[in-house]
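for ur thesis appendix - Patatin. copy paste whatever u need, i formatted it the way the template wanted (i think)
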Amino acid sequence: MTALAASPMTDTNLEVDKLTYEIFSILETKFLFGYDNPAKLFNNSPAPPVKSPHHRRAGAAGKVRVLSIDGGGSTDGILAGVSLSHLEARLRLKSGDPDARVADFFDVAAGSGAGGILASLLFTRGKKDGRPIMTADEALQFLIKNRRKLMTSCGSGGILRRIFRPAASSERVFRRAFGEATLKDTLKAVLIPCYDLATRAPFVFSRADAVETDGYDFAMREVCAATVADPTVAGAAEMRSVDRRTRIVAVDGGVAMNNPTAAAITHVLNNKQEFPFCDGVEDLLVVSLGNGESASVAARRADPTMSPASAFLKIAGDGASDMVDQAVSMAFGETMQSNYVRIQASGFMMNNMNGRDNVEMAEEMLKQRNVESVLFRGKKIVEKTNFDKLEIFAGELVKEQERRKSSILPVVVLKQASPRTSSATHSTISSC
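the 3d part is after this line
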């Protein structure tokens, strides 16, 4: 398995570069230059006559709410976990519902690596009451408790610890959390990437695909194992779909897309069946959670046995995440302040800390004022802290939730899976 994981790295880079280029090309062409006709993006077909700007007021049906969570970064997902815990607390306070969950206020969740684990824990339906299997605080505690079993970047022990980390141990952790739940059991649209060594191409686990056919439905425990599998050691995760027809040999989602925000946005804009009235970024509310810089140089000094390949992948993931944030910020343009928020921090390493110290450090990171992309003006340091931005956006999410209670038009028409004995599907209007 080691040779299998290491051999296609050159092809991997080419495939990831191609995927990144295609996503950015669509974002740039569609938003920066005003091309809102899909035909114009991919061929030279004549564009239809320009409609009156009043043909449909932007956001008339409401805004689609997107949550995107980066791969582990220097905090192994702890920064995003603390951000989500704080966000959920503010949503409960502002909505007046003491049992409100993050999943109640988002329509789409995308997560890579540790972010994919968090998204899965917060958006998978529990058997008993149909609510998410964990609260944001419980998901954070799950990540803290199991970091050393799930993340190869944390702790000491070098290459020996990474090689001898038993796969069965992480499999048991995920099985206890998710049981037999599959992608069909997620509450909202979910997107979790990995890189498939079998096809040498990125692969995105998607609820929308899973409800169409069992060939794209996978156990959630295996989805999580796939998105955190270490590509530099014997850590590739081999799995099959529930109907056994689709085979995946997966490695870390950060190889394909460490920051899945752009992929989540394009998924919404090109999925008219589930999001019929979403025509552009003005119809979106997007929360993108970073997990700190990878700090690969410092990590390698602390752990001299870290391979150059591991360090390179972390650095590449950082660069790709920043590029996605830059592209998305430019795409939102003047609506960025109201429709898009990016939470990110720098300057901290958490590898050898206990859970309480990790949380305290993440809270310090949320007090930072960070740089923000400005259309055609580079970047600037913003006045608001990460905490401030989460507080403001929590209010916007609650406003959208309240607005939907009196709306006639559905914002989301979520695909619903038929019983697993049948491959047929149907659509129903989401209550959210």
